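Researcher: We're teaching a course module on how sequence relates to structure. For the next exercise, students receive a sequence and then see the predicted structure as tokens, so they can try to spot secondary structure elements on their own. Here is the exercise chain.
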Amino acid sequence: MELYHSAIRLQQDGDFSKAKDIYRQILESEVMEEVGGASHHTTLSKLKYLVLKNIAAIAREQGDLSAALDAYIEVCVTLRCVCVCPRMRACSGARAPPS
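Model: And here is the predicted structure for the students to work with:
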């Protein structure tokens, strides 16, 4: 969790490149590779959701809507979560309802 909090601080400070690097490091960790499959760990699933959502937020902030959409799609596919649909519509150019 310390690594995640470090990425959050970097993101809040506007150091998006370093924040994304840390988020990717979290996603590529051995324990995260198991999330979303047959084994379901609630805490790790929430962490993966937050990491992917933050990666998407950074991509949107930088104007990279394709990368943001990719991160939101990964949330839907690996975590079976449709709660990011309004954000996905915004990335695809469709008008998203207010959240």
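Model: If you want an answer key for the exercise: Residues 2-91 form one domain. Residues 94-99 have pLDDT under 50 and may be disordered.
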